Every structure is written in structure tokens, then in C-alpha cells.
Amino acid sequence: MRVLAGDIGGTNARLAICEVDGTTVRRDIQEVYDSSKYASLEDIAREFVAGNSVEVDYACFGIPGPVRGRRAQTTNLPWQLDADILERGLGIRNVYLINDLEATARGLATLADADFTELRPGTSGTVGNQGLLAAGRGLGEAGLHWDGRKHRPFACEGGHTSFAPTNEREDALLGWLRTKYGEHVSWERVVSGPGMLHLYEFLREDDPSRESEAVRDAIAGGGDAVDALIRAATRDGDPLATEVLDWFMALYGAEAGNVALKYLATGGMFVAGRIAPKIAKALKGSQFTERFDAKGRLRPLLETIGIRIVTNDSAAMQGAAHLAARRARGDND
Description:
The protein has twelve helices and 14 strands. It is an alpha/beta fold. The chain folds into two domains: 2-109 and 314-328, Nucleotidyltransferase, domain 5 (2-Layer Sandwich); 158-310, Hexokinase, domain 1 (3-Layer(aba) Sandwich), CATH 3.40.367.20. Helix 1 runs parallel beside helix 2 (83-90), helix 3 (100-107) crosses helix 12 (315-328) and helix 5 (193-206) crosses helix 8 (239-263). The longest helix is centred in the C-terminal third of the chain and has 25 residues, at 239-263. The chain is globular, with a radius of gyration of 20 Å.
């Protein structure tokens, strides 16, 4: 089954023509667009369709924000999306919109074992709900409900729940972030690409002399500041960047544990998104699992939950393609 699939992010929008056969998804044509340079998803999709002479009847796009019915408002882009308008504008008979983390959750079934890195194993033979979170431009979260036969992915907006400090330094961070964002400070403000930069700015303000010239120039150079920080920490051993990354991974683990509790994710947790594959080795020696487990009386439960890193960044794309193909077959489950 040939379909059009899209993984729409606040930084990049990736569109592809995919061939779907069961849970196998092959990307035949793929293009990447700078989301900020376009006024709408329709403009990007129209350029892709025209440039690649696309002829498909089914398309699905993973959207970074809440999807309500056939409409969506992106969280980190000023776009309002309507599947009916996209169908008319693109000349495609059936267009579907789903949350990008639901798309990632659906894409897990299309991945191979090589697309995962195990952070720690879970209790052997355990089945149950699963959880997923992914830090990139924002912080996305989703669940996979175990109905006794299979996992059923569902979206949420848990990344926008209130950040909860657990020590004095994090109390101070929360106060600092409130001066920027007002009373509500979400987990996305600390566990995301921009969140990592917040941690860097907070620690740098406390002692500006700790900032290295190399990191300062890399961040100011107009490139990817998050990648520059990760390289400085993991490759160059920069002390301030290392402290930032260590703190970021600890906070990532703390929120992953929150997700696991909310979904009772005894079937396992998945860590996806743009950042996780880049810090996969560092995560193994970090405070991620300790903060994941540190939930008081529920620690014994959390210690049984397996955690896997999704290293294939096409999970959302493949999940969107898989859903489009299922809808084409009349499967609305």
C-alpha cells in the first residue's frame, strides 16, 4: 500500500512516500523542510506533492500538538490544521491528522530490535500498559494501553504538566523560570532542547566564569546549540556542559518515572525523540534510572519496569504511514 506520511516538528517537517506491507514500512521518497519558513503544513505538502508527482489516496501527518477530530493547533508553530482543507488543497482523497507522539507510539511496532537500545531490562514476562516520552523541540508524551490482546496507542499533552522540583537547586530553577514564563512552568521548559539551554543559562548566570569560549562561540554561532552542548559534554569534557547534561538526564528520568506511574507502565517505558539517541551512551551512566525510580513508596514497582531508548528517528513517520495504510484497508481500530 502506497501512502503519504509526515512527521511534522517545530524545527523540521519530514514528508515521505511510503510503501506499507503489514508492519513493514519502506520510505521510497523523503524530503525535509524547515518548518519556520512556511506559513502552513499545506504549503509544505503542496510543494512535496508537486515536486515529486505524488499520486496517493491516503495520507497521515503526525502533528506536534493536540488533535481534536480532524483539526489541530500546533504547539510550537503558528499553524492551524484542518484535514478537510488539506484533502481539497492536495487533491488527496483521505487525509488524517494524529498527534506526533501517538504516531511515534504506533511506529514502535514497525521497528526492528536494532532500532532500540536497552537502558535496563524489565521483569521477565511482564505485560501491561506502556509509556513513551520524547524530548526534542518540545516534550511529547503518549501511552499504549494493553487491552489484554494488544497495545492501543493514545495521545496526551503531559509535557505541559507542571514541573515539580525535588531539591533546593531545582526550587531555585523553578523560581528563575517563573521570571521568564509566569506562574506555570511545564516539564517541557526543562526536558527539551530549549530546556537544556535553560539549564545552561541558569548555571552560567550563577558563575559566568565557568563558560568556556568554545561553547559560547558554538552556541552564538547560529548552529544547533543543543548539539553543541552535547558534543562539549560527551566529547570534550567541558565541565559546565557536562553538569548541564547530567542535570538534564536526571530531570528526564524524573519525568519518565512520572509517566510510568500515571500509565502504570508495567509493560515498559520508551524514550524517543531527537535528543535521546545522541545521549544514549551517557544515559547508561547517568542518574536517569535513579530519578526514574525515586518515587517513595512506589520505588519497588518502578524498579521492575524496563526502559528502552528508541534510536530510529523515523518511528513517527512510520507510525503515520502505518495508520494511513490501516485506514485504507478499512481498519478503524
